[in-house]
Amino acid sequence: MNKKLLLLMSACLISTSSAFAIDVSKAPKMKMTTEIPAGLLTPNDMDTKIGKLHLEDGVPTVETAQKVYDYLDFQHGVTSFLSGIQIASMEAFRRGLLTFGPPNKTVVLFENLMDSKALWLTPNTTSVYMLMWLQLDDEPYVLETPADVLGIIDDHWFKYVADFGRLGDDKNKGGKFLIVPPGYKGKIPEGYIVKHTNTYGNWVIWRGFQKDGSPKPAIDLTKKVFKAYPLSQKDNPPALNFVNASGVFNNTIHNMDITIFDEINEVVQTEPAQGQDPEILGYFASIGMEKGKEFKPDARMKNILTEAAKVGSATVRTLISRPRDEAFLLFPENSKVWTNPFVGGSYKFEIDGVSLIDARAAFHFYATGITPAMAKDFRGKGSKYAVAYLDKDMNPLDGSKTYKVNIPANVPMKDFWSFTLYNNQTRSMLQTDQRFPGIDSNQEGLVVNKDGSVDVYFGPKPPKGHENNWIQTIPHRGWNMLFRVYGPLEPWFAKTWFPGDPELVKS
């Protein structure tokens, strides 16, 4: 009901409310009257978290109805924030990538690795990132992909489409993938690895690997092999524009205020509803984000959605940094600090038909990339992650202070381990005087203790004698970190090996 109409009705009823009040105590007992179980009844007067509510034998007053609708819209706004954060994230990626050039024709490469000028969600400092935005229309697109990469295609809803490279159907040999748009009825030719997507917009990202400390071989292979073209142009594929993004400011992170709903709405308007949960779309529609309709909240709704975004923002930050669910803890018997950014072991964030709504929201707030490989425990392949926002005393990590983490000997890995530091606000790399805010076990000059363990230090200045084992932080700013193990081995999965908690170093 329109707010003005509700207020008008309220004003009209104030002077006569007593005349219309229903006094149930005066109701006579009728021939068919029975006892009514107390649990079926709603009291006429209730004190609640949203204020005093008054009903007339089950029917709310105008004032109470307004309170309920304000609360309902706020609740739906918070739910839309938490259930739509992944959609906003993908839309932010689309917008960020298109600043480098048009879709389908532009391949963004970090030829000299990604550094902290890039506002990305929790990237690492060792992989060779490469990606493009694929925008389909009415025909399939061919992607010719390189070997020896970890490649993912996710759709605009941030749902999985395909892997390529080491974990793909090309079996790490490189291949020709045919990406088929929604509703395509044409003939599918042979000779391709066929993947259907539920959206026209698609995120294509792959990580190459350094060779002898150099990203150049991976970059050169992509420039030589990677192609993207409409199926109708297979005999004469158009040239691609390869853009080096290393050292260049670029933002691919979604908003956290009321404008996050504009990012979500962009996807609602441009993509088919198929592939998205109807209930999530229902929450979107309840606050005005409905396909084919203008999203234009009035002043009342803007105020409600502004507050909903504030609560949603605080909620996802709470879920990732101070989780209450023990499933978030990587080593629950030995640490309350190190948490798992990917909870539940399902790339769909579902277990036994139940959606992991908190885990989904926390992951997409903090990280990117959806693939079934996330849910598989590969011994000696891939990577595993541990997040820390707090020190061993459960206090937030403070850039003005110095901390130490001990990495015990015999790290269960086939390849290497690494630390990367991130800004709490953006979840992107911490922007300090160090170009790469990280350290890894391959780093030249890394000091190893006599027992084979390694102490890594974090602070605004390096402790004397530990310069080679130090990552810089920013005074008066919070930060968090990811510890990564590449090629994890059995002791990691068995939880018999684990890193030490961050300890405050006394000055």
Which terms summarize this structure?
Immunoglobulin-like; globular; alpha+beta; signal; 9 helices; about 25% helix; six-stranded mixed beta sheet; VPA0735-like fold; DUF1214; Jelly Rolls; DUF1254_sf; four-stranded mixed beta sheet; about 500 residues
The low-pLDDT segments are 9-19
User: What is the beta-strand fraction?
Assistant: 15-25%
- In helices, the fraction of residues equals 10-25%
Query: What is the domain total for the residues?
Result: 3
Q: What overall geometry do the principal axes of the alpha carbons give?
A: globular
What is the strand tally?
A: 25
What's the tally of helices? Answer: 9
CATH topology of the largest domain: Jelly Rolls
Task: Please state how the strands of the largest beta sheet are arranged side by side.
Answer: 9-8-12-6-4-14
Determine the structural class based on helices, strands and strand pairing.
Answer: alpha+beta
What do we call the CATH homologous superfamily of the largest domain? Domain of unknown function DUF1214, C-terminal domain
Strand count, sense and closure of the main sheet? 6 strands, mixed
Q: Which CATH class of the largest domain applies here? A: Mainly Beta
Question: Which CATH-level-2 architecture of the largest domain?
Answer: Sandwich
Average predicted confidence as pLDDT: 93
What is the CA-CA span between the terminal residues? Answer: 63 Å
Describe this structure in words.
The chain has 3 domains: 132 residues, VPA0735-like fold (Orthogonal Bundle); 143 residues, Immunoglobulin-like; 179 residues, Domain of unknown function DUF1214, C-terminal domain (Jelly Rolls, Sandwich), CATH 2.60.120.600. α3 crosses α8 and α7 crosses α8. 24% of the residues lie in helices and 23% in strands. By secondary structure, it is of the alpha+beta class. The chain is globular and about 90 Å long. About 2% of the residues have low confidence. Strands 9-8-12-6-4-14 form a 6-stranded mixed beta sheet, with helices on both faces. A 4-stranded mixed beta sheet has the order 11-10-7-13, with no helix packed on it. It has a 4-stranded antiparallel beta sheet with strand order 18-24-20-21, with no helix packed on it. β2 and β3 form a beta hairpin.
